[in-house]
Amino acid sequence: MRIEKSRLAAGAVVAALLAGTTACTSGGEPAARARPAAAPACGNGVYTWSDVDRRSVLTGVAEKQTLGKGGGALTHEVRPLRTPRVAVDFDRGPRIDAKAVLRSLGARTGDVGADGDATGFTDVHRPAPDPRTGGTEMEGAGTFVTYSWVEQVVADFQYTCGSGERSTGRATSWVVDGSGVLECSVPVEGAKEGDPALAAARFSCGPHAPAAAPGEGRPVRRASS
User: Fold this and answer.
1) pLDDT, tens only, 180-206
2) How buried is residue 141: exposed, middle or buried, by Cβ count under 10 Å (0-12/13-18/19+)?
3) Is 73 exposed, middle or buried (0-12, 13-18, 19+ CB in 10 A)?
4) What pLDDT was estimated at residue 216?
5) Residue 107: enclosing H or E segment and its boundaries?
6) Which of 101, 108, 109, 149 has the greatest count of CB atoms below 10 A from its CB?
7) Which residues on adjacent β-strands are paired with residue 143?
């Protein structure tokens, strides 16, 4: 706003002071100064992590598909079952910066490097991976199931502010996504309880199928991205 000095009215001076601008007295001294910015809430704190859990989880599965002699293409589409999240859920205390929480978790688990490169680990707007896979060709006969998975990281945290206030909650992110193909009549090699391949077999092959039980067998075909 341009004001001519010879026409400055008293009301304009008051407005300038209320707006936080600096006006001068006839002696040249400041009559008003802008207020300093408030200090960040709950700063200079310390994180404490507990119940840190990393596991591969099933995110999508297709209906089983039977192929005859000579095999062929798997055409059944993977249906989403779970949407991976990058998020911070607070239980109590001040709501602190979610990205800072996730960066601390990533440093704790080794998923965020010393240079701060998080490769999406701290991005709460990170899109979930597409569970659909490209066309897969099988060379032999069998009943097959295609599935998708992610490696998920979840942990509880307590953040103690410099002032002594405490904030608690849970942080969630994921680091790897991939897909696999199993054959219902063959146990998945090295599969243990909680393996996404077992979950996929139980979902599409049935709970009593050989692939649905932990055990040794032909290797499962897996890919990661």
Assistant:
1) 999 999 999 888 889 999 999 999 999
2) middle
3) exposed
4) 53
5) helix 98-109
6) 149
7) 66
